[in-house]
């Protein structure tokens, strides 16, 4: 009876985990409904996104985290921080949000190095000119030529530019009573325009009225130049990408255009926020939301879905489920309970469903294939590996396929999490990724090849660790692991070869040549050649079980270099996604695989599983 119930207990735990972590947040009664405010769409970097995404990605870029911890120990959620930055700059300027942990940068300000690493905009204001000058010098250098100080000062400069752009996105950062200011501006426009026309004709004009208009024009022009988000949708619904900043929209009033209702709404929302009037704030947010839903249904729909996607955080939920599945498997191995093994399999299915929801949501929001950057490649590699691992588990039912699936699923999502530190993971495609049908098929096939190679490598790791360090591997289980590894390598060979050929066809259409010996192309070719070498060595009898395992381990080295390493060379058409901090991890992973290869080469008498009792 207990064996029948055990799998369902695991399923119930997984469902409870999802329900607990996926509840949509709600604003407290009488508080500012920044959650609803976060669903309003804007245009940033050529992509429509909700303010909630702007808040999260901006805080990650500036602060390194999605939550800001205040000096009093309380936490500030991204949208509340963004609301302060947009509408109450004097308060936001005092938040210790900027990361500075380089001693040379601190020394430039005359600050001692200590445990503190977060500083406020107010503290950095006296040094803005110096930061900009040093950051400009660093920006003129290639990434590989920058010192640690130059990298740190450039990151700080970019964070400060982003923050100042946010503060001027919906109104000038010093725009107290902005709705009254707009009314005053509208009132001076007719007389100011008339004075301008008289001046252009060489006729007598009213200097005071011209100067009054010029002050507003200079103010909104400056705001428009630094604004980070374009918040005003186009008047022509067919021109979806022609959003404007608030400043640019106000400048159109000079040409007899009416003030956009969106600009008026943001002005009233900001005035209510600064005045502490939560009820008025919430009403104005609701009115603006209804207007957006009626006038910009597509942008509103996508923004609402992306906001839900952010709140559900499916990849974080999947990470937790992968850990739960592995723990159930570990308990199954320790206690010999097959019910726990089945429970782990069912939990993995739920994790895969959540993972698939996240992957599908990204495709829906981008309108692109599943792989468009390094972040999405990690998501897809994990997804593909879990599917192959579950198929192996369904065939062999020994827990190895499920264990590999849960481990690689978790690890790849952790990698994706760290790759997200650069900001928006749904960013527009790189220019090199001029998409077409060949790109879609190429990246999918080649990434499935990555998935299979990593799964083969993980099976090889299980073979070595289990055989050398435990007594749990007998001849049958060793043969089973070897067969799984061999079958997965055959699968990897097919998809790596097809993906490489499709990449050549895409390159021929996009760049006018099928093959250019680009580092990324060479990396893909290395995987194909290594897979072919393994299979030929196996077919020719040059290697047996252990030789297959050792070559599969080196496949991890080749695949990781092809996936990440070539991007770090800084050369070629595929040199995007460079991250200094990933280099030590990549080298460490490669060294780890070489160590395992050396361990696998030990005489069988040194393997605990093959030692005589």
Task: Give keywords.
single chain, two-stranded antiparallel sheet, 24 helices, two-stranded antiparallel ribbon, elongated, mainly alpha, 68% helix, 613 residues
Walkthrough of the structure:
This protein is mostly helical and 613 residues long. It folds into 3 domains: 1-22 and 313-428, no CATH class; 33-297, no CATH class; 434-613, no CATH class. 68% of the residues lie in helices and 3% in strands. The protein has 24 helices and 6 strands. It has helices spanning 2-21, 34-37, 51-63, 78-87, 89-92, 103-108, 121-124, 128-139, 148-167, 178-200, 207-226, 246-251, 261-275, 278-295, 297-312, 314-335, 338-366, 374-396, 400-419, 437-469, 475-511, 519-539, 545-563, 582-600, and strands at 41-44, 47-50, 68-69, 75-76, 96-99, 118-120. Strand 3 (68-69) and strand 4 form a beta hairpin. Helix 10 (178-200) crosses helix 11 (207-226), helix 19 packs across helix 20 (437-469) and helix 21 (475-511) runs antiparallel to helix 22 (519-539). The chain is elongated, with a radius of gyration of 29 Å.
Task: Produce a short descriptive summary.
The chain is built from 24 helices and six strands. The chain is mainly alpha-helical.
């Amino acid at each position: 009876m207990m064996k029948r119930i055990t799998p369902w207990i695991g399923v119930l735990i997984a469902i409870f985990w999802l329900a607990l972590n996926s509840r949509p947040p709600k604003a407290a009664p009488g508080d500012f409904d920044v959650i609803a405010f976060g669903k309003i769409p804007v245009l940033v970097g050529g992509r429509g996104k909700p303010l909630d995404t702007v808040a999260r990605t901006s805080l990650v870029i500036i602060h390194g985290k999605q939550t800001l911890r205040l000096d009093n120990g309380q936490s500030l959620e991204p949208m509340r921080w963004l609301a302060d930055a947009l509408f109450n700059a004097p308060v936001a300027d005092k938040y210790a949000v900027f990361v500075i942990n380089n001693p040379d940068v601190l020394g430039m300000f005359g600050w001692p190095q200590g445990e503190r690493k977060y500083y406020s905009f107010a503290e950095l204001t006296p040094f803005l000119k110096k930061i900009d000058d040093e950051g400009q010098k660093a920006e003129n250098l290639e990434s590989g030529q920058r010192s640690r100080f130059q990298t740190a000062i450039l990151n700080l400069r970019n964070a400060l530019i982003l923050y100042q752009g946010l503060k001027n996105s919906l109104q000038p950062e010093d725009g107290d009573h902005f709705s009254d200011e707009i009314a005053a501006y509208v009132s001076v426009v007719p007389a100011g325009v008339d004075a301008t026309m008289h001046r252009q004709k060489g006729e007598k004009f009213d200097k005071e009225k011209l100067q009054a208009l010029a002050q507003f024009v200079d103010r909104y022009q400056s705001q428009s130049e630094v604004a980070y988000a374009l918040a005003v949708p186009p008047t022509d619904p067919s021109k979806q990408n022609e959003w404007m900043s608030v400043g640019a929209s106000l400048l159109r009033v000079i040409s007899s255009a009416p003030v956009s209702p969106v600009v008026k709404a943001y002005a009233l929302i900001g005035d209510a926020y600064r005045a502490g009037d939560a009820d008025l704030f919430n009403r104005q947010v609701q009115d603006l939301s209804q207007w957006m839903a009626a006038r910009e249904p597509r942008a509103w729909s996508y923004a609402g879905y992306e906001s839900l996607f952010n709140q559900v955080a499916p990849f974080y939920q999947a990470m937790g489920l992968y850990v739960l599945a592995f723990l159930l498997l570990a308990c199954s191995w320790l206690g010999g309970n097959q019910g726990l093994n089945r429970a782990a399999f069912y939990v993995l299915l739920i994790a895969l469903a959540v993972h698939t929801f996240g992957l599908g949501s990204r495709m829906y929001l981008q309108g692109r294939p599943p792989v468009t950057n390094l972040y999405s490649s990690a998501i897809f590699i994990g997804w593909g590996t879990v599917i192959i691992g579950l198929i192996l588990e369904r065939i062999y039912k020994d827990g190895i396929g499920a264990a590999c699936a849960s481990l690689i699923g978790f690890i790849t999502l952790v990698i994706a999490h760290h790759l997200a530190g650069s900001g928006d993971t749904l960013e527009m495609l790189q220019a090199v990724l001029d998409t077409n049908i060949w790109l879609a098929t190429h990246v999918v096939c080649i990434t499935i090849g990555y998935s299979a190679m990593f799964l083969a490598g993980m099976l090889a790791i299980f073979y070595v660790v289990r055989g050398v360090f435990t007594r749990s591997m007998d001849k049958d289980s060793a043969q089973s692991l070897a067969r799984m590894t061999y079958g997965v390598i055959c699968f990897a060979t097919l998809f790596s070869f097809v993906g490489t050929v499709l990449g050549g066809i895409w390159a021929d259409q996009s760049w006018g040549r099928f093959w250019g010996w680009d580092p990324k192309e060479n990396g893909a070719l290395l995987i194909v050649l290594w897979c072919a070498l393994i299979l030929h060595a196996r077919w020719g009898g040059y290697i047996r079980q252990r030789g297959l395992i050792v070559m599969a381990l080196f496949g991890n080295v080749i695949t990781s270099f092809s996936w990440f390493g070539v991007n770090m060379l800084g050369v070629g058409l595929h040199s995007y996604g460079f991250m200094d901090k990933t280099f030590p991890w990549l080298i460490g992973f490669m060294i780890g695989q070489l160590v395992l290869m050396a361990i696998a080469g030990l005489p069988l008498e040194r393997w605990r599983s093959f030692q005589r009792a």
